[in-house]
Amino acid sequence: MEDNLVTQSRVHYRYKVDSRMKIINTLGDPDWISWPGDGTVLCHQTTSSHRGTDSADRDVQNLFGTYSLKPSTDKGHEFFTEKQSFKTSHGLVHMSGKRTDYYGPLGHKNRAAAYENSFYPLPNFSSSDVNFYGAKAISNSIPTKSAASLAQFLGELREGLPSMVGLTLLKGSGRPGSIGSEYLNFQFGLKPLFNDLKKFANAARNSSRIIKQYERDSGRVVRRSRGLSGARMDTNDETTLESPYGFDNIGIPSYGIGGGPSMWVDQFQADGGRLPLSVQRNYHVKRRVWFSGAFSYYLNNGDDVIDRFDRYEQLANKLLGTRLTLDVLYQLTPWSWLLDWFADVGDVITNASAFASDRLVMRYGYLMVHTTSRAQFSSSLTDPSGKRISYANEFVTDRKQRFRASPYGFGLNPESFSNSQWAILGALGMTKGPRSLR
User: Fold this and answer.
1) Alpha-carbon span 409 to 90, nearest angstrom
2) Sequence-separated (6 or more) residues with CB below 8 Å from residue 253
3) pTM
4) For residues 314-347, b (16+ Cβ closer than 10 Å) or e, as one string?
5) How is 405-429 classified by DSSP, letter by letter?
6) 196, 94, 98, 214: which is closest to 145 by C-alpha?
7) What is the pLDDT of residues 268-326, one digit of tens each?
8) What is the predicted pLDDT for the residue at 417?
């Protein structure tokens, strides 16, 4: 969590659940029973946001002399807010019988001491989740990413070309072992080969467009936005709660609460009314995650021989992936795919390799998370006149979070940045002092 974040909590909404009941006693006089129940549904809101001012617009010396635009800086901050809300289908009803009357709301909640317990806790989005999905989003957004990977392709050829489709199966005469070998040959041999050839073909066909865009975006702010389907959540849980163990009534008292309400319930049913014996609880959680960032990189525009060769190398790598980087070495390591199954090391190495080249930097990067939970309690009753009333209450918790990345990725400590990385940040106006980010 960054500095200057202030957390505030408040009750932003109060819903009264008081009700009144009338019973005609044996003398023919009305006895009124006020039933406050738990009194009020309290809806809370908690927000953590930045407080303070920034001096991000002051002029900064352009160390490279190549960025034609005014230095743009990241003025955003981390953010968190969680808000509760309550909805009811019947805020006020009037039911009457020969000897009973009822004025008040209809509905149910969790059987607990306070209505706040009906607001279900949301699943946590941890710092490890931020680093995992943030690294994946950056890896898919890097503007200097190669269209193909010639270095990796040539490295994989040291193990030889995969067998033709069906050859392994024929050699094994259809034995179970040969079937497994044929599957592995296709999955980890032929399929990657076809994908590599497809990338080379696309790079060759679109080479002019790729190079022109790469040259045009050099020195500019390149914005990227990506949705993260792997972090999405959409769950639904439906449960039938039996009375009186799984729920309490809002307004209408349940059995065994006391002499007055219990007596009213007995008379209400004697008048022909029927209270619910069960409640349907529906618990739905939905979460979506997306990334928004902006990048800058530098394509060498010098006129001497060394600068021109450097430029040609950058263009060749953008088109074909000719560099032997740490990312390529990792991809060539046996069983690296298995390591990525448990921890997404590949994306972290890909990002580190990209930020170490072409003076690439992320001007800003944010991971946004929006999570909502809805706990709905629904049922129906019959009033003394024989009318059936279906009703529902809904307890909603809505959480919005924004996580901020460093110029070289999520979860990184600026103290680990190299002198070269600090020089790039200074040239882009993203520092406010020696080894200090804005």
Assistant:
1) 50
2) 35, 37, 261, 262, 264, 265
3) 0.78
4) bbebbbbbbbebebbebbbeeeeeeebeeebebb
5) PBTTBTT--GGG--HHHHHHHHHTT
6) 214
7) 888 888 877 778 889 999 999 999 999 999 998 888 888 888 888 888 888 888 888 87
8) 78
Q: Which residues are bridge partners to 260 per DSSP?
A: none
Would the pLDDT of 130 be above 70? yes
Contact 181, 188 (CB under 8 A): no
Amino acid making up residue 399: R
Percentage above 70 pLDDT, the chain: 72
Q: Is the pLDDT of residue 143 over 90?
A: yes
Whether omega for the bond prior to residue 244 falls within 30 degrees of 0, making it cis, is: yes
* Chain length of the chain: 438
Task: Name the token pair of 282.
Answer: 């529906």
Instruction: Tell me the pLDDT tens digit for each residue of 328-359.
Output: 777 777 666 566 555 678 888 888 888 888 88
Residues in Cβ contact with 417 at an 8 Å cutoff, skipping those fewer than 6 apart: 408, 425, 435
Q: Residue 33: name the closest of 25, 42, 45, 41 by CA.
A: 25
pLDDT over threshold 60, residue 172: no
Identify which of 159, 48, 51 has the alpha carbon closest to the alpha carbon of residue 399. Answer: 48
How far is residue 242's CA from residue 280's CA, in Å, rounded to a whole number?
A: 9
For residue 17, give the nearest of 44, 38, 42 by alpha carbon: 38
The amino acid present at 370, given as its one-letter code, is: H
